Amino acid sequence: MFDYIDGAAGAEISLADNAGDFARLRLKQRVMRDVSKLDASIDLFGEKMSMPLALAPIGMGGMMRKRGETQAVRAADAIGIPFCLSTVGICSLEEVAKAATRPFWFQLYMLKDRGAVSDMLKRAKAVGVKTLLFTVDLAVVGARYRDIRNGLSGGGGVFSRLRAGIVDYLLHPQWLLDVGVGGKPHVFGNLSEYVPEATTPADFRQWVDGQIDPGVTWRDIEWLRREWDGNLVIKGVLTPEDSQAAVDAGANGVVVSNHGGRQLDGVASGISALPAIAERMKGRAKILVDGGVRSGQDIVRAVASGADAALIGRPWIFALAAEGEMGLKRYLSLVKHDLGVAMALTGTTSIDEIGPEILDRP
Fold first, then answer.
1. Secondary structure element (H or E) that encloses residue 149, with its range
2. Which of 122, 169, 216, 290 has the highest CB neighbour number within 10 Å of its CB?
3. Cα separation of 70 and 55, whole Å?
């Protein structure tokens, strides 16, 4: 489970660049400004957010902590930011909706079974989802070597299967009690009715792998736009051309993303690709960015580079795995505090005031 979250594709160069490229962006400190009143809130897709941040969709979140997606949505709601549920989350749309106190987002892939796609869209709408993140950078699954070595992606010999199963469980008794015993059922809640014979995440693997559609084009997004009348955000673009194509197909926004470095290793980080995309969009659509966001300072860097908001992934699932809902609330509170400090020391009192001029460029 740790490797699944911590790892990425290939030699993990893009994974390192995601955080490294944020760190290389220097902020310009300003002094003697009245920063006694700070407001980090924004309105995005008709929703009030306490800061320009959302929890990115992460598969198998409920394998990291007991019914993890429900704990995450409660923590996000308490802070006042959106939580995005993954198609391959352990908890279903309906279970998360029962735990939520405000609308949450839903992430979806284009499956070969278009009937299943249409059905999940109807289910999402029925539980109050208004914003759909549609992932487009999964035409094929990236070469994630950690998952191959540790047996998570299947295969391997007897020792590999034992190590990934009973041996690993016994070495982690706290996880065994919290998730292994108390966190059942271990199924992909959103997909269970389409694969009724599956009883573990591994049982879903063959069906999910077979449903990845390498033939998807922008025409399919146009079809999706007709099926979904809510906010549509295309996740996984890295070029101005693809961002424009997404908007031309009917999207309300894009997420500049390399899938956390988990797809094609060696591509640009989201933050390095962001300025050119922001220049091309120029208010035509909302722009979000993910990959490498770790702190409130990174949120400021993202907004200054042209984003309306950022998505955070690995940090929130690590916080949840460590201390559950309480740990995630504490982490998000720290991020919000860091954001306020960064705003004050760059002389900005609202998100609208954050622009490229606060970056200390050569």
1. helix 145-149
2. 290
3. 13
Q: Which uninterrupted H or E stretch holds 15?
A: helix 13-23
pTM exceeds 0.90, yes or no:
yes
Q: What is the pLDDT of residues 34-78, one digit of tens each?
A: 999 999 999 999 999 999 999 999 999 999 999 999 999 999 999
pLDDT over 80 (residue 160): no
| pLDDT at site 154 | 67
Identify whether the C-beta of residue 19 lies closer than 8 Å to the C-beta of residue 292: yes
Residue 283: which residues within 8 A CB-CB, separation 6 or more?
none
**149 within domain boundaries:** no
Retrieve residue 20's tokens: 């490294």
On whether residue 45 sits in a domain, the answer given is yes
Is 195 within the bounds of a domain?
Answer: yes
Number of structural domains, the chain? Answer: 1
Residue 239: both structure tokens together = 């070029």
Q: Is residue 347 a contact partner of residue 304, using CB atoms and an 8 Å limit?
A: no
More confident residue, 170 or 359: 359
Q: Which two tokens stand for residue 201?
A: 């995440």
Distance of alpha carbon 298 from alpha carbon 145, whole angstroms: 28
Give catalytic residues, as residue numbers: 259
Instruction: Tell me the three state secondary structure of residue 336.
Output: helix
| In a domain? residue 164 | no
What element of type H or E holds 235?
Answer: strand 231-237
CATH label of the domain that carries residue 43: 3.20.20.70
Both tokens of 27, joined, read 């902020």
Q: Closest Cα to residue 354, out of 299, 304, 308?
A: 304
Domain range enclosing 30: 2-141+172-352
CA dihedral 114, 119, 125, 127 (to 10 degrees): -140
Please provide the distance, in angstroms rounded to a whole number, between the alpha carbons at the two ends of the chain.
41
Query: Which stretch of DSSP H or E encloses residue 324?
Result: helix 314-345
Beta bridge partners of 255: 235, 288
DSSP 8-state secondary structure symbol assigned to residue 56: P
Q: Which helix (H) or strand (E) holds 68?
A: helix 68-79
How many residues comprise the chain? 362
What is the rounded CA–CA span in Å between residue 70 and residue 62? 8
